[in-house]
Amino acid sequence: MELRERLNEILRLNLSPKFTAVSYAIQVDGELWAADALGTDGTAEKHPATTEHTFNVCSISKMFCTTAVMKLAEQGKLDLDTPVVNYLPKLWMPDERYKKITLRHCLSHSSGLPGTQWKHFSATHVGTPENTEYYDEVYAYLAKSHLKAEPGTYSVYCNDGFTLAEMVVAEVSGIPFGQFCREFITEPIGAHSTRTSITANPDYPLIREQKKVPEYFYLQGCGGFTTNMIDLCKFGQLFLEENEIISEASKAEMRKRQGVTFLPEDTASICFGLGWDQVAVQEPEFDLGDHVQMKGGNSFQFTSKLYIIPKYHAVLAISETHDCQ
Questions:
Q1: 3 state SS of 113
Q2: What element of type H or E holds 38?
Q3: 245: helix, coil or strand?
Q4: Are 58 and 302 in contact (CB under 8 A)?
């Protein structure tokens, strides 16, 4: 039995009877071993889901944002440990500690920022590529906010830090964030379906959960990417082999344990890398080896996971609509 057929069989054992769609891809040594999509596109016509269809992978977007930041750092255009306000002079908060927030804090969830600017987290229409309206809202929101803690004190999952990182990328590069990622990350590796939802590629239609409208995101760096799973594996492959997109030094920095905690019992926060949820994934039933990196994403309609497993030179990607259960 082909691997794809066996995986589909396993998936069907656990799917809700009225699910919309699930898609996955497995890549080893840079070669696609298996990929498929089950279900429909979620429209009234119920077109079959295919591997070309895209899913909103939400927080996996943080890896594209982190890669963009590291790329600009490699070019000497920004520094991880320079205060963000140096790059975003419009940024102001009534809590003076905001002047200490660095990009490293933002990418390791240790900025102390409130959490999430929820307006336009999930929208029913598409904004402009420049996203200036949303950025103005972020500045206004932070101008009324206080930090939860001194930057660098402890790590708590935080979307706001990645939104600031996104804004820094746009400011420093001089082009919209989505355009930067498309020109310098996704298009060069042939991941043509992988874009921010604001600039989504119409050649790769977006799945929607049944009886719901398509979801779009103004926030991009923390949660706005849409992609199919095969292209997500192409992105994951960057972290397994030398390439011109991101340096070995940058990847090593990203997979270091960068999380901070003051609680001995908190073994999760210290496993944050830069962008990564986990940089030392352990599975008791399997020997996955060292430096297994994982990033998850969850929107109002989708749940997604991306795994990088160096021991097996493998990339695993999966996304499902919530009604898969």
A1: coil
A2: strand 31-39
A3: coil
A4: yes
- Please say whether the dihedral angle defined by the alpha carbons of residues 264, 266, 271 and 272, taken in this order, is positive or negative: negative
> What percent of the chain is predicted at pLDDT more than 70?
98
- In what order do the strands lie in the sheet containing 225-227? 55-58, 225-227, 195-196
Can you tell me which residue has the tokens 């009234």? 44
Helix (H, G, I), strand (E, B) or coil at 252: helix
Q: Which residue has the tokens 């496993």?
A: 271
Token pair recorded at residue 266: 């908190």
Whole-angstrom distance, CA of residue 219 vs CA of residue 235: 20
Please check whether residue 7 is in contact with residue 24, taking contact to mean a CB–CB distance below 8 angstroms: yes
Matching residue, tokens 């790769």: 204
172, amino acid identity = V
Write the DSSP symbol of residue 185. Answer: I
- Joined together, the tokens standing for residue 142 give 């932070």
Q: Which pTM does this prediction carry?
A: 0.96
Q: Using one digit for the tens of pLDDT, what is the confidence trace for 169-209?
A: 999 999 999 999 999 999 999 999 999 988 899 999 999 99
Q: What is the dihedral of CA 123, 194, 257, 267, to 10 degrees?
A: 50
Assigned token pair, 127: 């904004």
3-state secondary structure of 179: helix
What is the number of other CB atoms lying within 10 angstroms of the CB of residue 97?
15
Q: Where are the alpha helices (DSSP H) in 78-199?
A: 103-107, 132-142, 159-173, 177-181
CA distances, 94 to each of 113, 146, 152 (Å): 12, 7, 19
Give the span between the Cα atoms of 28 and 194, in whole angstroms: 20
Is-contact 90 143, C-beta < 8 A?
A: no
Virtual torsion, Cα 60, 304, 285, 308, nearest 10 deg: -40
Q: Do 307 and 288 touch, CB atoms closer than 8 A?
A: no
